[in-house]
Amino acid sequence: MKICLDTNAYSAFKRGKESITELLENADEIHVPAVTLGELFAGFYMGML
To answer: Do 20 and 12 contact (CB within 8 A), yes or no?
Structure first.
C-alpha cells in the first residue's frame, strides 16, 4: 500500500493517533508532497523564532 502523507495526517501521527500510526506502519511506501514539506518546514522555522 502506498500512502501520501499530508500536513494534517503528519500532525495526527505526531499526536499519536492510532489509526494514522497503523496506516503508516503497514505502508509499503510513504510519500510526502513538496507542499507538505514546505508547510512543515515553515511551521518548524516559525516555532524556533
So the answer is: yes
The pLDDT of residue 29 is 97
Q: What are phi and psi of 2, to 5 degrees?
A: -105, 140
- Longest CA–CA span in the chain (Å) reads 38
Give the separation between CA 10 and CA 28, rounded to whole angstroms.
17
For the chain, how many structural domains are there in total?
1
Q: Is the dihedral of CA 5, 13, 9, 47 positive or negative?
A: negative
- The pTM (predicted TM-score) of the whole model is 0.76
Range of the domain at 34: 2-48
